[in-house]
Specification:
The complex is a heterodimer of chains A (172) and B (176).
Chain A: H1 3-14, H2 20-29, H3 44-55, E1 65-69, E2 75-83, E3 88-96, E4 102-103, E5 106-107, E6 112-115, E7 118-119, H4 123-171
Antiparallel strand pairs in A: 1-6, 2-3, 4-5, 6-7
Chain B: H1 15-36, H2 39-58, H3 66-83, E1 89-92, E2 97-98, H4 105-124, H5 127-138, H6 143-150, H7 154-174
Classes of the chains: A alpha+beta (172), B mainly alpha (176).
């Protein structure tokens, strides 16, 4: 698509004047993996978000969820890790939320940030919690790896023992 | 006075309504999820909405434009939930990075960072702006349907949409 045409389409898009066909053209241009003119690269995330959200990908979460209770002008790194028998899960989130939360005629409810029920009010605390969670996961992950090696060794021994028994039974 | 439970004969469901339910379930979920911020809660609200619709139709109420009706009811129920006392909105995280996956965390953060920032800007918008953006840019409803769902004129919808897109653009430009 020519630059001038794309520029014009984007103008119309931001003025709310595009039709669905033109919007699909824009999304097609910014589709993941395609090369985009540097002038327009900043808009790629917007159209990628729309595509992902439409596919449901942006809403999917693995295990961890963070409870959002109070809205502030805060940047928070939050880590929530949950261990299962199979694997450790690490989640990271950066939030920048507008503190006003008001719209014409509509009051947005207050929102607070908590991690596992503990309110997190400052960056330093959030970063400390992130740090300690990462260390904990590292330790647990290392322990799991060692245990996994031991289990493998035991299974190997068991396998050999079964083979021996099998041979003895066949001889009889 | 005891009330008998209402039996909804699914076998006799109005075919137009049934088709609207089937066709719009995922879109309902996307819209509601963007209001309440939680997948499981969104699913509950969608189910409730469908049941309300089925009940309305079985009682002989005329639902002239089923999909728009469902979207409107779902949105209102989602807003009621958000405004209820003690509601805490969950912001579901994107896919977790497993420590043993071999994927470098910084690379993953780099790739998803911009998209996540857009998502967070959208979440921070007033509900009416967020809803109009989701309905148009994510779910690709036309202006007439959006106007019907939101109960406003098409010109207002365009204005709202333009304002929303420009807010996101401003964020993207200032955070390039």
């Amino acid at each position: 698509m020519r630059k001038s045409r794309l520029r014009r389409l984007l103008e119309l898009y931001f003025d709310g004047e595009t039709d669905l066909r033109q919007e699909r053209l824009l999304r097609g241009y910014f589709a993941e993996g395609k090369e985009v003119d540097p002038e327009f690269e900043k808009y790629r995330a917007l159209f990628t978000y729309c595509d992902l959200e439409a596919d449901g990908a942006c809403g999917d979460a693995d295990e961890a969820e963070m409870q959002v209770k109070r809205c502030r002008h805060t940047v928070i790194w939050a880590v929530s890790a949950s261990m299962t028998a199979a694997a450790a899960v690490l989640c990271g989130l950066v939030l920048l939320v507008d503190g006003t939360g008001k719209a014409a005629g509509v009051m947005e409810p207050g929102i607070e940030y908590t991690i596992d029920g503990v309110a997190v009010n400052d960056d330093a605390l959030a970063l400390d919690m992130l740090d300690s969670e990462l260390s904990r996961i590292g330790t647990v992950s290392e322990a799991m790896r060692r245990n996994s090696d031991r289990v493998s060794a035991m299974l190997c021994k068991a396998g050999n023992a079964l083979d021996d028994m099998d041979r003895k039974l066949k001889i009889k | 006075m005891s009330q008998k439970p209402t039996l909804i004969r699914l076998g006799n469901m109005n075919p137009e309504f049934a088709s609207a339910v089937e066709g719009s379930r995922r879109r309902l979920h996307v819209l509601v999820r963007n209001i309440v911020g939680d997948d499981a809660l969104a699913e509950d609200i969608v189910q409730d909405t469908i049941l309300i619709g089925l009940q309305a139709v079985s009682e002989g109420n005329n639902v002239s434009c089923p999909e728009a009706w469902l979207m409107r009811v779902a949105r209102n129920r989602a807003l009621d939930t958000v405004r209820s006392a003690g509601f805490s909105r969950s912001v579901a995280l994107e896919a977790a990075w497993r420590q043993d996956s071999g994927v470098n965390l910084e690379t993953m953060v780099g790739m998803k960072d911009r998209v996540r920032q857009v998502k967070e800007v959208v979440y921070s918008l007033p509900e009416s702006q967020r809803t109009v953006f989701i309905l148009r840019d994510v779910l690709e409803y036309d202006m007439k349907d959006i106007a019907e769902i939101l109960g406003m004129g098409e010109a207002n919808v365009r204005q709202l949409l333009s304002r929303t897109r420009k807010k996101i653009r401003e964020y993207l430009i200032n955070n390039e």
